[in-house]
């Protein structure tokens, strides 16, 4: 079995759902963002990253996403929306939203997903916790969605696709669930 630092980080990374209040250091944030910018992309870097580190704004986004969740047909999301204790950002001090230019000839979902994964792996590699967060994107699907885009300075023509939170982990270790068997077919 080959083992190196990159493979170790990939296997070690887990979604972290409990964070310290302390903000991440600027140089750590910059390292994570740079890793995002180096992701593979079909749209010639037609993405945009929005870094939110304002606690009041993060709290408002959490509430807006939960309000939208309350109206959904999906029971699991509705329950989370109605759960007063649930914070969809898990108290993390930094949220990065990855948006893609809607006017590129190729769909930007894959580019933005690749960038988001790079953010998570880079975070793990420098000891930060991270979690890919779909839930907060619900804020953009509320009637106030376009106001949110404006307030968050998402460039015109860009669609927010994915997001990730970053911060210092409250607990050091998280169990890695076993990988499911039989997910690979070899044709040689
Ligand atoms: C597209 C996408 C959206 C996700 N959205 C959320 C989310 O809103 N909240 C959350 O806690 N985790 C979210 N996750 C994290 C997954 O729950 C997590 O990756 C999965 O359970 C595997 O666990 P691991 O990341 O620890 O390996 C999301 C992951 C992906 C890929």
Q: Any overview of this molecule?
A:
This protein is an alpha+beta fold and 188 residues long. It has a single domain, classed as NADH Oxidase (3-Layer(aba) Sandwich), CATH 3.40.109. Helix content is 36%, strand content 15%. The chain has 6 helices and 4 strands; from the N terminus they run H-H-E-H-H-E-H-E-H-E. It is globular, with a radius of gyration of 17 Å. The two termini are 20 Å apart. The structure holds flavin mononucleotide. The site of flavin mononucleotide has 8 residues, from strand 3.
Give the key terms.
188 residues, alpha+beta, four-stranded antiparallel beta sheet, 15% strand, globular, binds flavin mononucleotide
Set out the fold topology.
Layout: H1 5-12, H2 26-37, E1 47-52, H3 55-70, H4 75-82, E2 94-101, H5 109-125, E3 129-132, H6 145-151, E4 158-167
Flavin mononucleotide (FMN) binds next to strand 3.
In short:
The chain is of the alpha+beta class.
């Amino acid at each position: 079995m080959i083992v190196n630092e990159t493979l170790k980080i990939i296997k070690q990374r887990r979604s972290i759902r409990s964070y310290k209040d302390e903000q991440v250091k600027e140089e750590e944030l910059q390292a994570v963002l740079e890793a995002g910018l180096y992701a593979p992309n079909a749209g010639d870097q037609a993405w945009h990253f929005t870094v939110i580190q304002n606690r009041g704004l993060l709290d408002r986004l959490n509430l807006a996403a939960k309000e939208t969740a309350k109206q959904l047909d999906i029971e699991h999301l509705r329950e989370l929306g109605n759960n007063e204790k649930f914070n969809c950002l898990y108290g993390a001090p930094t949220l990065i939203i990855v948006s893609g230019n809607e006017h590129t000839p190729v769909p930007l979902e894959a580019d933005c997903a690749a960038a988001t994964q790079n953010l998570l792996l880079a975070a793990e590699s420098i000891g930060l916790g991270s979690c890919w967060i779909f839930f907060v994107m619900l804020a953009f699907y509320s009637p106030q969605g376009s106001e949110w885009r404006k307030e968050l300075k998402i460039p015109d023509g860009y669609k927010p696709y994915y997001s990730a939170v970053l911060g210092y982990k409250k607990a050091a270790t998280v169990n890695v669930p076993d990988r499911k068997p039989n997910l690979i077919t070899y044709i040689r």
